[in-house]
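Renewal narrative, Specific Aim 1. Our central claim is that a sequence can be written position by position from structural information alone. The example that follows is taken directly from our test logs and has not been curated for this report. It begins with the structure tokens describing the chain, in the order in which they were read.
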């Protein structure tokens, strides 16, 4: 079965503003995020990609644009099922304001029981993303063979939920996974089990150095997944 390269979108204007973007329109990459996406083609230069799949949201499409420019023979496929979690009434709100909401504790400690007002549950989010990957695995294998590799650009909580599924972790443990903006996570699927080959690889170990709270909050993973940056 194929190898999946999961790319989280680059740092966005919502990340730096501390806003839970969700599916709000007009959320673009900030200057740093644009630089991250510009570096992506070189990071993946040795990988023979057969397809690029993206969330429909602007920040994901902007992230893969340099990669597609570098490989004009690849077609961009938009996949609605890997779009950001529908945070409903929480969308567009400051994360600092949401921290005192009792639901945030559920999101952090018992996400399988969390459902966003006017939005979707985290269980539904994971289920649709896993279904999308399974469908794309079959589609890529049929078209390009079992050794094919393809890229998929999505969001922090989506990628973490896919990693949890690949590792056989309950969704309640997915908050232990960390994926920074424009990080690369690789899952190799086989007939009997998936293998996690890379997790949240940015190629920059400087991110492990202590930082001021504001800088850390801008880059940490997950919209509500880490209670920090916005996906």
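The sequence written for that structure reads:
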């Amino acid at each position: 079965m194929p190898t999946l390269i999961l790319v989280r979108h680059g740092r966005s204007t919502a990340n730096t503003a501390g806003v839970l973007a969700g599916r709000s329109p007009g959320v673009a990459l900030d200057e740093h995020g644009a630089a991250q996406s510009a570096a992506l083609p070189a990071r993946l230069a040795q990988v023979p990609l057969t397809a690029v799949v993206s969330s429909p949201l602007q920040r994901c499409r902007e992230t893969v644009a340099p990669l597609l420019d570098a490989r004009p023979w690849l077609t961009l496929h938009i996949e609605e099922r890997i779009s950001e979690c529908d945070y409903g009434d929480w969308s567009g709100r400051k994360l600092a304001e949401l921290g005192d909401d009792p639901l945030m504790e559920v999101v952090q400690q018992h996400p399988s029981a969390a459902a966003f007002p006017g939005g979707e549950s985290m269980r539904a989010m994971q289920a649709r993303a896993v279904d999308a990957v399974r469908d794309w695995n079959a589609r890529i294998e049929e078209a390009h063979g079992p050794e094919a590799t393809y890229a998929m650009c999505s969001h922090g909580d989506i990628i973490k939920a896919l990693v949890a599924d690949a590792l056989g972790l309950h969704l309640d443990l997915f908050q232990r996974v960390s994926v920074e903006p424009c990080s690369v996570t690789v899952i190799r699927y086989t007939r009997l089990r998936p293998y996690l080959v890379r997790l949240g690889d940015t190629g920059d170990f400087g991110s492990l150095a202590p930082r001021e709270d504001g800088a850390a909050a801008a880059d940490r993973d997950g919209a509500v997944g880490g209670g920090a940056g916005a996906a």
